[in-house]
Amino acid sequence: MSYYRGSESKREQFRRYLEKAGVLDTLTNVLLFAVLVALYEETEKPNNALDFLKHHLGVAGVETADVETLRLGVSELQQKCDLLMEENKELRKRLLQYEPTPEDGAAE
């Protein structure tokens, strides 16, 4: 566990080093400039420039409607899986009533 803390500390030191050297600011400015150029070069300007920036910087992630649709799908599939598992248990129990036990099969 001390290795994890040590590497975390090294990451933090490296981040501070980059910050002091101005690398993070420069990187941020370069990325922002590139996205602004992409926005400028768009033939049809988007209705929401902020959403365009977020999307191109990777901040937006998956759209909220998509996330909600996926969550609903997962919920429905989970319910279906639960029902099928319950049905499977019931059918196995019923099947065991009709299958001979190993002792009965050996007696024949």
UniProtKB/TrEMBL annotation:
Signal peptide: none annotated. This is c-Myc-binding protein. Residues 67-94 form a coiled coil. Keywords: Coiled coil, Membrane, Nucleus, Transmembrane, Transmembrane helix. Its main location: nucleus. One of its GO terms (cellular component) is nucleus. The gene is LOC112229552. Belongs to the AMY1 family. The lineage of its organism: Eukaryota, Metazoa, Chordata, Craniata, Vertebrata. Gene3D superfamilies: 6.10.250.1060. InterPro entries: AMY1. It is found in: Nucleus. One of its GO terms (molecular function) is transcription coactivator activity. The chain crosses the membrane at residues 21-40. PANTHER family: ASSOCIATE OF C-MYC AMY-1 (PTHR13168), C-MYC-BINDING PROTEIN (PTHR13168:SF0).
